[in-house]
Amino acid sequence: MQQAFFWLFAAVAVGAGLFAVTRRRPLACALSLVVSFVGLAGLYAQLGASFPATLQVLVYAGAIMVLVVFVLMLLNLPEDAHDRVPDPDQDRMWPVFLVAPLGILLVFAVRGMDLPKELPALPADFGTVAGTGRLLFGEWVWPFELASLLLLVAVVGAVVIAKKKLD
Amino acid sequence: MTLGHALLKAGIGFLFVLQMLPLMIYLERKGSAFIQDRLGPNRAYIPGVGLRLAGVVHTLADVVKLLTKEDLVPKHVNAFHYKLAPALAMFCALAIGAVIPYAHPVSFPDGTVFRVQGIDLDVGILYMLAISSIGVYAVVLAGWASNNKYSQLGGLRASASMISYELSMGLGVIGLLLVYGSVDLNTMVAKQGDLAFGFLPKWGIVVQPIAFLLYCTAAFAETNRNPFDLAEGEAELVAGFHTEYGSFKFALFFMAEYVNIVVQSLVMATMFLGGWQIPGVSHEWLVKPENTALVLKGILGFLAVAGTFIGFRLLAWHKKNRMVWKDERGREGAILAVLLGFGPAITAAAVFLLWTSGLGPSSAAVWTAVIQFLVLVTKALLFCWLFIWVRWTTPRFRYDQLMNLGWRLLLPLGLINVFGTGLLVKAGIL
Question: Alpha carbon of B415 to those of B209, B420, B424: distances in Å?
Answer without folding.
Answer: 14, 9, 14
